[in-house]
Amino acid sequence: MSGSPFSIHVTSTKGLCNKCNIFLQEEHTGEIVFYLKGADIVMSGIVQYNDWLEEECGNMAREGLRTLVVAKKILTEEQYMDFEVRVLYTHYYKLVYCK
After folding, report:
1. How many domains does the chain have?
2. 96 pLDDT band (50/70/90 cuts)?
């Protein structure tokens, strides 16, 4: 991203599965980038399988280090809007049916 990115959506699911979602949109091009951060155990089931990820996280764990994985994906406007609709629907459902 060449210009100044700005956040368009941030969510945290700490209570559910210890993940954090961040969407950034590049100011000049409009490119939307999705970042997902989480524990290696959680993220290894989400991202495409990679020997390197498992090996490096294992090496760091043996040294007593905690690990986090960050994934990145460029989204189309349609993909982002689909996410927004799902989030709004989930919030509406909780408000109406989970009192």
Report:
1. 1
2. low
Domain that holds residue 67: 5-97
Query: Taking phi first (over 0 means left), then psi (-120 to 50 degrees means alpha), and beta for anything else, what does residue 95 get?
Result: alpha
Query: Two tokens at 1?
Result: 């991203």
pTM of the complete model beyond 0.85: no
How would you class 35 by CB atoms within 10 Å of its CB: exposed for 0-12, middle for 13-18, buried for 19 or more? middle
Is it the case that residue 5 has pLDDT exceeding 60? yes
CATH number of the domain encompassing residue 51: 3.40.1110.10
3-state SS, one letter per residue, for the chain: CCCCEEEEEEEECCCCCCEEEEEEEECCCCCEEEEEEEEHHHHHCCCCCCHHHHHHHHHHHHCCCCCEEEEEEEECHHHHHHHHHHHHHHHHHHHHHCC
